[in-house]
Amino acid sequence: MAPHRAFSFPLSLAEESSRVSPFAVSAKEISKLRSCEAFQIIRGLLVDQDNQEFCDQHCTDCREDKEAWLLQRDITYALIVPVLEIYRHAAQLARALLGNRHIFDLELVFRGEARGTFSWLQCFVMDEEDWCLAKGCPGCIVSYALQAEPTIRMILVACRLSSSLRQQRNTSHLPVFDFWSDVMKKALNEDPFWGPGLWKDFKTRAAALETGIEELVRQCIELAPAAASAAQADDSPPTSPKHVFHKAPHHPSTQDQTQWVPSIVSGCWTTLLADAAEAKRIEASPGTSLRPVLSRWSTS
Description:
Layout: H1 13-18, H2 27-34, H3 37-48, H4 63-98, H5 112-127, H6 129-132, H7 138-144, H8 149-163, H9 180-190, H10 199-233, H11 257-281, H12 291-294
Helix pairs in contact: 3-4, 4-5, 4-7, 4-8, 4-10, 4-11, 5-10, 8-10
């Protein structure tokens, strides 16, 4: 069982008394995010879903505190977007190859480390679905990032993947959250449950998950043509399976990883932003909602 807080969800004792976020974001980084159009689109999705209500524990009359909680909730959500998108596309590809098999059979498409990584991501999304969808009180979502080792690992691997965007051309319009790793380190060191001394272990686990995700992506790239053929054989709609792995080289080598990993992360963002724009376009139609864009990783 993964390490987790001994305190009641979602707050530690120190946080209960202060009701202040455990994370501190510099004014410089806040300014960058506010000028990032892609990040503002994601923020708009969350606002449109009425996820702004605070619980009694986090309710405050201080406008600055509320804004801090909301900003950090949106950072948390946007930060894990590429990881969740990679999982979604991998699951979509596996379904195309396996057909109407049980959801827990999807991992059988992959082998070795990629299978273990897909299984871990699948279990994480199922167990933490509300958190992945940013459902509920913004303060609870932010605080929950420190609740257990899996959420910490998810955040840190997302930081690592986000930093890869700096290696990709034409991505200046996308948000880069590698600064959040230092924010997490400070919060963990000061946390009454975790405390200093565990950071190295957290980084090691996140690095291992990152390696697994890279292997998962590599296998998805190799399987993409077969998935497309299977979809055509089943008379599936021409847009299915629609995933970012078609845009990468079919046989990526280890030497190519510095190029195709950032490309996949960038492609995940591009796909999400395009879907968000389309949802916005039809939003005025009766009965339409932006929820499908936010719930795209749901396993239910």
